[in-house]
Amino acid sequence: KYSTAAGATDPETCKSCDLGNYFLASLGVCVGCDAGTFSSSIGLIDSGHCSACSAGTFSTEVGATHIEVCTTCYPGTFSISSASTCSECVVGEYSVHGATACATCIGGYFNPSSAASVCSECLAGTFSNSGESTCRACEMGFYGSADGTSACSSCEAGMYSSFLSATRCNLCAPGEFSVDGVCNICVAGTYSSLWGASVCAICEAGTYSTAFGALNESTCIPCGPGKYSRAAGVAMNICEDCESGKYSSALISTTCHSCSICQGSGSELQRCNASFNAVCHDDALRLSAKYLFTFAPISVSGFSTFAFLRIHSVPIRPNLKWLGSIFLGANDVFSNFALLVLLNYDQQSVVFFMVLASMLIFIAICIGLYACCKDSL
């Protein structure tokens, strides 16, 4: 209460502060409740007894006498209690009607302006963290297939995205590979024949390749006979020659083999070199891969004739050469005669001696043999 009468002795001169006011002792007068507050009672002794507008509402009126002066904050704003005005939400945040605080936009959503009532959704190929004012593009090697993405996904092995804001990944082409969302060309010594390869295949040991981006194994070049290589995936020709006393006859070799040692004098049909092993022979003479005919004389009813035997032989050796033949005996076609056959076998002359019956019979048998056995000869 207060009194304006000087020297008053009657209590009736004391008056109560009206509704919406409180007594300001320092001045000895009643003043209105501050904006954001109100008073529906009389005789308030200080401002602390004014009632506050609740959070989420505000009031600009001084000396308000009822709660109805407290107005709800609009969407995009908020207030604490006793507020004379609502504050706007900052970028990256939003609020609904009568909010007491702003909410942060969740990941995959953004808000570029203040006083927003909703957050906008990031489009496919972009993303955002919580509370951001804008969406960011997915980087190369990543993609976002749906709207509202909080993080981009990395391309799987063998796939790539070569531009920003990709919504999907593509397969790497043959001759390429990918482990981090970016296709790389297969380096020399490797190749890839598949779409979407996560690794390039390596040229096997004994081969090499100088080609980049090779599509298939045919680009791997064999070292060839007489050479070898132990390393796989080689990008240059590092094939080594076989050492003396060793050989490699295969196109692809990782090591050289020791040459065979033939036993006995003159038993080596083929000498060992870097590309071929030595070829040894046994004591039996090898003539032809087909058939060898031998003839033996037979006497029937006083007439001389001959019979023949057919025996199979093993393959002919590279240095077997025909030197010729010599007829011995009478020139009469009905006479017995001998035939010398000269062959060169491993640089040594070999003589075959055959005793034959009459020349006419010999010729007839030869014609018959040719007719029936020409496919085997």
UniProtKB/TrEMBL annotation:
Cysteine disulfide partners in this protein: 259-272, 262-280
Transmembrane segments: 291-311, 323-345, 351-373
Keyword Nucleotide-binding included in the entry's annotation: no
The organism's place on the tree of life at top rank: Eukaryota
Intervals holding TNFR-Cys repeats: 241-280
Repeat among keywords: no
Pfam families: Ephrin_rec_like, TNFR_c6
Keywords of the record: Disulfide bond, Membrane, Transmembrane, Transmembrane helix
PROSITE patterns: TNFR_NGFR_1, TNFR_NGFR_2
Domain TNFR-Cys, first and last residues per copy: 241-280
Name of this protein: TNFR-Cys domain-containing protein
Organism whose genome encodes this protein: Cryptomonas curvata
